TrEMBL record:
PROSITE patterns: G_PROTEIN_RECEP_F1_2 (PS50262)
Location in or out of the cell: Membrane
InterPro entries (alphabetical): GPCR1_Superfamily_Member, GPCR_Rhodpsn, GPCR_Rhodpsn_7TM
Domain of life assignment: Eukaryota
Coiled coil: none
Regions that span the bilayer: 53-74, 86-109, 115-144, 165-189, 222-239, 260-290, 296-316
Protein name, UniProt field: Odorant receptor 131-2-like
Gene (name only): LOC116220465
Length: 357
């Protein structure tokens, strides 16, 4: 994952042309490095930067508050604890919450403290990279669970047990974490140990800039995205075929089919983060005076907006989850109001007693 840096409007047209010229003749790694240079060259004016960072921080807080309510609903209702579907969904929600926290922190730090300790930068980027890689794999796992539930309903209870679901979650985090740690190991092997005590611009291409990192990144992306897209296409095709052939519970199959489609839409938005550096270069080539707005919008669309879709896809659309969530929080509101009324009655009775005395 490569969170963008704030860039300003004060750069001259000549310097912009110097940075964005001839993108067609550059390799993928050179484009990413050019994207980093463009972002670090200048910064926004204070007022514009403040508005952008307020938007990002407020959206991050809102998304994490919504996700926090969802996690609380899951924890407070034992009916969800034995269902692999909801356990996988909670894994996605927690993953999104961590990613939002780290992503927004990195985005804010690029303006407030653009140069800071390399070891701290490694920790933040490893966390961001792990959660970023996790998202497509979790979506693929949830699609497989829906495929088993619709196409193999008699085997669902035996295959999708709670124990196996937690094993899948552990494997998902392992698959996301190992490549992120491998990047750090390559840095340890190719750089002096004193590098980790230096101050650097905390940007992935600035930290991971060896030939090994570039080759590893290509292999990672091809393997990850091929697996995820093949899984989604296969599960959607099989669910669609089952829905067409079904005579009984067509509504359930149709809903699962729509869920897989929404998985695909969410994944498309998540995948934009892989092409953001290239997209920024192309757009800035044609619209150099809007470079700051372009990087801000691409970050918003590829990193923040997809995390808003999760509650919409799974919580609001799922009648069982939405019903339990509304019941739980309506009870909380009623009990809160009841407590306030009791306190007011106590206060009023105390006043009456004091007046009589």
């Amino acid at each position: 994952m490569s969170p963008p840096f704030p860039i300003g409007e004060g750069c001259s047209p000549e310097s912009v042309r110097t940075y964005v010229q001839s993108p067609r003749n550059m390799s993928g790694s050179e484009l990413q490095e050019r994207h980093m240079v463009m972002n670090l060259t200048n910064r926004d004016g204070f007022q514009e930067a403040l508005v952008k960072y307020l938007i990002i921080v407020i959206l991050g807080i809102v998304i994490n508050c919504i996700n926090g309510i969802i996690v609380l609903t899951f924890c407070k209702n034992s009916v969800f604890h034995g269902d692999s579907r909801y356990i996988l969904y909670m894994n996605l929600v927690v993953n999104d919450m961590i990613m939002i926290c780290v992503s927004v922190t990195l985005y804010v730090l690029t303006y407030a403290y653009p140069i800071f300790n390399a070891s701290m930068c490694c920790i933040l980027i490893v966390t961001a990279s792990t959660t970023h890689r996790n998202t497509p794999i979790i979506l693929a796992g949830m699609a497989i669970e829906r495929y088993i539930a619709i196409c193999k309903p008699l085997h669902h209870a035996q295959v999708c047990t709670v124990h196996r679901t937690y094993i899948i979650i552990a494997l998902t985090w392992g698959v996301g974490f190992v490549p992120a740690v491998a990047d750090v190991i390559i840095v340890l092997a190719t750089r002096p140990i004193g590098f980790f005590s230096k101050g650097i611009f905390c940007f992935p291409p600035n930290l991971y800039n060896t030939r090994y990192h570039k080759e590893k990144m290509i292999v990672d992306q091809v393997l990850y995205l091929s697996f995820v897209w093949l899984t989604l296409m296969y599960t959607y095709f099989m669910i669609f075929r089952t829905a067409r052939a079904a005579k009984g519970d067509t509504a359930s199959a149709k809903k699962a089919q729509n869920t897989i489609l929404l998985h695909g839409a969410q994944l498309l938005l998540c995948m934009l983060s892989y092409v953001t550096p290239y997209l920024d270069i192309v757009l800035i080539t044609f619209f150099p005076i809007y470079r700051s707005k372009i990087t801000f919008l691409t970050y918003l669309i590829s990193n923040i907006i997809p995390r808003l879709l999760s509650p919409l896809i799974y919580s609001v659309r799922d009648q069982k989850f939405a019903k339990n969530m509304s019941q739980y929080y309506s009870c909380k509101v009623i009990s809160f109001k009841g407590g306030l009324k009791r306190r007011r009655l106590k206060c009023s009775s105390k006043r009456v007693c004091s007046l009589k005395g």
